[in-house]
Amino acid sequence: MNANILKLGxxxxxxxxxxxxxxxxxxxxxxxxxxEEFDRFIKYIPLGVFVAMIIKDIxxxxxxxxxxxxxxxxxxxxxxxxxxxxxxxxGVSVVASGIIMLIALNIL
Length: 108
Known about the structure:
Distance between the termini: 37 Å
Helix content: over 70%
Order of helices and strands: HHHEEHH
Structural class: mainly alpha
Strand content: under 5%
Largest sheet: 2 strands, antiparallel
Radius of gyration: 17 Å
């Protein structure tokens, strides 16, 4: 299978899954889905997906857990966590993390 087709397939399946995670609870629960607890839960779905995507890249190297001072990705991670907590906006967190990691990997 062509690598580009595989990548597009993964993106498509991810889109469908994320859309379903956001849409189906509202569809199933109807008007009762507007509770405050439900709104808080829905807000954490993108953050959970974002964390799941970066954990493997930051904490694992060659299939092994890599918690060491020589892991330069841990330093920008602290800055990204602080930005995420301060702004609580997934868009700001993604953009800031991309810029911080780009700078860190090119400088360090």
